[in-house]
Amino acid sequence: MAPVPVAGAAEWKASAAGKLTGLPQGAVSRAVWGHRDTGTLTRGGFMGNPVGFRAVKLIAEAAAAVPVVCQDAQRRYEVHPVLDLMRRPNPGQGRAELFEALFGQILLSGNGYVEAVAGDSPGLPVELHVLRSDRMSVVPGADGWPVAYEYAVGGRKHRFDMTGSPDPICHIKSFHPQDDHYGLSPMQAAATAIDVHNSASQWSRALLDNAARPSGAIVYKGADGQGVLSPDQYDRLLSEMETHHQGARNAGRPMLLEGGLDWKPMGFSPSDMEFHETKLAAAREVAMAFGVPPMLIGIPGDATYANYAEANRAFYRLTVLPLATRVAASLGWWLSEHLGAEIDLKPDLDQIPALAAERDQHWARVGAATFLTDAEKRAALGLPPVVGS
Questions:
Q1: What distance in Å separates the CA atoms of residue 105 and residue 112, rounded to the nearest whole number?
Q2: Do residues 63 and 112 both lie within one domain?
């Protein structure tokens, strides 16, 4: 969010280094990934890879299901216009669908964009929409802050002006050490492992198409001792092999050889035997990049956690909650600008079943602390003070 000058103020703050990252007015800055663009990574790492697909779905669905509380410095709200807006953000989506799309965009591209549709009167937007990150471009100003966002569909573009207040776009990005305007996604970090896993799957498919075993060698010994087939004989042999002995439907069919032909089967080499382990190692690297314990995806050979419940707790503590907390805080600050009053959005840890045992212990410890007052106990539990106390 760009700094907005306060009316009547003599000066306003801005980053001294920010202007170095800016481009001339109207120029568009894009993250340079070579062949690791968002579209290619999405097709190969999400739509074409079961490990990447399951990791993204697992995180996005779990984070979207985390209950969110709305509070300010005085109280926690059970009913609030922001909660109503999030419950039904637009006619086509509910809360879960909107947040799943937002978390999915962040995981796939490192960037999430939420559009606010303004109503006839100032205040909260009447609708919220998640925009595709591969269609969005940041237009930085001379000071390095975004002055606009451009959304391109086909040959048409729509420009969102970011110089006024409140901002029409909420841009949530992951940390990127080498880019000032775009985030780094787990999919980019796992790109090499995804390529290895996809190549291993293609190799396995090719192996199945060839009777699920390494190919052997057909040795020809002619009557005169010359092991050379005529062109017609070679083409006929090749056609018969492809028609009658390749593919799953021909698995196990006996081979009839004639005219001095002999079949020499080949066994698995050590590299063939290790190929399956290479695929599992690549799958573990993909899961590690996303922060998903391999046990939760069904990848064998991982004994980091003693049981499934412990792995599930670590998944929520180390992956789901940090992402949900960061996104909720960004949306809360952004919507506060529209509302004209500061509110805080954060996950409700007490309503997450995976953390129930930890929260029970935490409440018990705080409740048993006799050296704390009731107000201090509420503060320790993340609750606002009681009104009138």
A1: 6
A2: yes
Token representation of residue 358: 């930890």
Residue with token string 């451009």: 150
| pLDDT at 34 (0 to 100) | 38
Interatomic CA distance for residues 152 and 159, integer angstroms: 9
Q: What pLDDT is attached to residue 187? A: 93
The token pair that represents 373 in the structure block? 């007052």
Amino acid identity of residue 295, one-letter, is: M
Compute the distance between CA of residue 155 and CA of residue 378 in angstroms, rounded to an integer. 55
pLDDT in tens, 31-68: 443 357 888 889 999 999 999 999 999 999 999 999 99
pLDDT at 55: 95
Number of H helices, E strands in the chain: 13, 11
212: amino acid identity, one letter: A
Write out the residue range of the structural domain in which residue 368 sits.
356-389
CA–CA dist 63, 60 (Å, integer): 5
- Do residue 33 and residue 64 come from a single domain? yes
Measure Cα distances from 15 to 11, 29, 109, 142, 143 in Å. Answer: 13, 19, 26, 12, 8
> Are residues 240 and 188 part of one domain?
no
The low-confidence residues of the chain, meaning pLDDT below 70, are 1-35, 207-229, 244-274, 301-305, 387-389
Same domain, 171 and 223: no
Residues 342 and 367 in one domain: no
| Inside any domain, residue 7 | no
